[in-house]
Design brief:
Elements lengths: L2 H40 L3 H19 L1 H18 L2 H7 L4 H4 L1 H36 L12 E6 L2 E5 L1 E3 L4 E11 L2 E13 L6 E10 L6 E10 L5 H4 L11 H13 L6 H28 L6 H29 L4 H22 L3
Antiparallel strand pairs: 1-2, 2-4, 3-4, 4-5, 5-6, 6-7
Helix pairs in contact: 1-3, 1-6, 2-6, 3-6, 3-9, 3-10, 6-9, 9-10, 9-11, 10-11
Length: about 350
């Protein structure tokens, strides 16, 4: 590696990690001030706050915004090089612009590779501890169920449905249970409601009617209460979307397949999480390309103008990401397209900026 490569790579990674540490310290201070009242109420230990929450808090947010930190780092130090005419001197000495991009590409590859490893291997474990801490000491409830007309196939041929679920009383109203065998309805249980017993793990059907279909006719029974053993927990009816962040990639794929098998097609948020684990790290290359293309221009206004243009582009990027994510979650947009479309659009912008950069 030549002296020029080492010089640019040292500036790149040094600025990146400096900004990462600085911004994470600021984020911790703001988050701590916001949660002070919760900590005073629930009284977690100092060790739990530091190691179970904030260490994993830093891992999550540092990785989530690594593309942004990369972009700002490239803008800052490249703009300084351009302002001091170092870029002009490099190009004038015979170094081509594509050759100048090599150390940037190496730095982006190191950051993207680290982010991919963290996303798929390290981050799910960190999120598991962080979310568990939030459930114990910050949040009142671990999950919410806002949907109505719930419908789940909890086992092959065993279908549970209900009108709505009350998390306060762990009650599924207008409860129904159907058992199908060889494509035919074998039995059906209808109840006014079913209450979940968190100790035994059973569902207690209240004011029920049970019908068993047979060759000689149907057998009908009624009663006030009936215990049922079902492979169904209240959390299966409505989970925190953030729970997907705590799943290893293999477990996340299995969970998505199980939800689809149960008849729950609303897995858009989980598919988005799955695709984001790869799309966000690869966006590092795009941000690096755009950052170099903008900051390598020596213009009146210097670093300030470069930062202003760069921040505007970043804000538009995150707006588009948020827009497509909401569209995939609530409007039926394909999750794969929702995640990768912003990257594709900004890749085209990056190529255009690179081609028009002074060389």
């Amino acid at each position: 590696m030549r002296i020029l490569d080492r010089y640019i790579l040292r500036k790149f990674l040094g600025t990146f990690f400096f900004m990462l540490v600085l911004i994470m310290l600021v984020a911790i201070v703001f988050d701590l001030s916001e949660k002070t009242e919760d900590f005073a109420r629930t009284k977690p230990s100092a060790r739990a706050i530091a190691f179970d929450y904030y260490v994993n808090f830093v891992v999550f947010y540092a990785n989530r915004f690594s593309g942004l930190f990369t972009f700002l780092a490239v803008l800052l130090f490249t703009s300084r090089l351009s302002h001091r005419s170092e870029i002009i001197a490099m190009l004038s000495s015979g170094v081509s612009f594509p050759r100048l991009m090599r150390p940037y590409a190496i730095g982006a590859t190191l950051i993207a590779a680290l982010s991919l490893y963290v996303n798929h291997e390290l981050l799910p474990k960190a999120n598991e501890k962080r979310l568990a801490f939030e459930e114990d000491y910050v949040r009142v409830v671990a999950f919410m169920v806002k949907d109505r007309h719930l419908h789940r196939e909890v086992a092959p041929g065993l279908i549970v449905y209900g009108e709505r679920f009350s998390i306060e009383t762990l009650t599924l109203h207008d409860f129904g249970l159907e058992r199908w065998e060889n494509g035919a309805l074998h039995s059906k249980l209808d109840a006014e409601r079913a209450v979940y017993d968190s100790i035994s793990g059973h569902w207690r059907a209240i004011n029920y009617t049970r019908r068993v279909m047979g060759a000689q006719g149907d057998a009908l029974t009624r009663g006030l209460e009936l215990d049922t053993v079902l492979p169904l927990r209240p959390a299966d009816l409505g989970q925190r979307v953030e729970t997907a962040m705590a799943m290893p990639t293999g477990a996340l794929n299995t969970y998505i397949a199980d939800r689809l098998r149960q008849g729950d097609g609303r897995v858009g948020a989980y598919l988005i999480e799955k695709h984001q684990r790869t799309a966000y790290p690869l966006a590092t290359y795009i941000f690096t390309l755009i950052g170099v293309g903008i900051a390598s221009r020596k213009v009146r206004g210097g670093t300030g103008l470069h930062i202003a243009v760069g921040v505007m582009l970043v804000l538009v990027y995150f707006f588009v990401v948020q827009f497509t994510t909401v569209a995939a979650t609530n409007a039926g947009m394909d999750p794969f397209l929702a995640v990768w479309l912003p990257n594709l659009g900004y890749a085209l912008i990056g190529v255009w900026i690179y081609r028009t950069a002074p060389k």
